[in-house]
Amino acid sequence: MGHGYTRIGWYRCDARSLTLFGLVKCCGMGDCGSWVRYRFRGDAFEMVDYYLKTTCDGRGLREDYDFRHPPPGWKRVER
Asked: Are 65 and 73 in contact (CB under 8 A)?
């Protein structure tokens, strides 16, 4: 994910579960990037999950990809 990649990001909120989801694609097709889930606890958001795919391999996200779940095949980063 070096220079020359276009970074595109979105955040979506689920008000019912007080959850914020973030996706950053490091090229238009979404074949690499990061995905994060935050939960609102008390008076701030706390990171719950973080997934990463550093290899841009030409296998992008499907058009019907459900933003509320980490992209298939992406690796969870442990704290």
From this structure: no
Print the SS3 string covering 35-68: EEEEEEECCEEEEEEEEEECCCCCCCCCCCCCCC
Per the listing, tokens 């990809």 go with 65
DSSP annotation of 69: S
Q: Which two tokens stand for residue 55?
A: 């290899």
Statement: residue 27 has pLDDT above 90 = no
Token digits of residue 63: 């058009």
Look up the pTM and report it.
0.82
Residue 6 pLDDT exceeds 80? no
Q: What is the distance between the alpha carbons of residues 73 and 10, in angstroms, rounded to a whole number?
A: 20
> Which contacts of 43-47 are long-range, i.e. CB under 8 A and separated by 24 or more positions?
45/20
Task: Look up tokens 């459900």; give the residue.
Answer: 66
